[in-house]
Amino acid sequence: MAITKEKKQELIGSFSRAEHDTGSPEVQIALLTARINDLTDHFKTHSKDHASRRGLLMMVSKRSGLLKYLRLHDRKKYLEVIGRLGIRK
């Protein structure tokens, strides 16, 4: 199941840099993380859904690229984002 509109607005509001910011790396990483977590739960019951697994792998790769960009350009924001989302050790 996709994330709800309310959940999406909540994530955008909490990670955005400005009022109508939806394209910053922080917001994109937060939205991708929510979708990845949702798909991870989906695979617990539908283990043979290989088409969705491919989409999951593409999302993880995209998030990894955004995290790398953020790590190289703004280390402080990177550490804040991974701390709030709990995605790295």
Number of separate strands: 0
DSSP strand content: under 5%
Largest pleated sheet: none
> How many DSSP H or I helices?
4
- In the predicted model, the low-confidence regions spanning at least 5 consecutive residues are none
**N-end to C-end Cα span:** 27 Å
Structural category: mainly alpha
Succession of helices and strands: HHHH
Shape: globular
Whole-angstrom Rg = 14 Å
How much helix is in the residues? Answer: over 70%
Give a quick summary of the entry.
The protein has 89 residues and is mostly helical.
Q: Features of this protein?
A:
89 residues, mainly alpha, 75% helix, 0% strand
Could you please describe the fold and organization of this structure?
Helix content is 75%, strand content 0%. It is built from four helices and no strands. The longest helix has 24 residues, at 50-73. The mean pLDDT is 94.
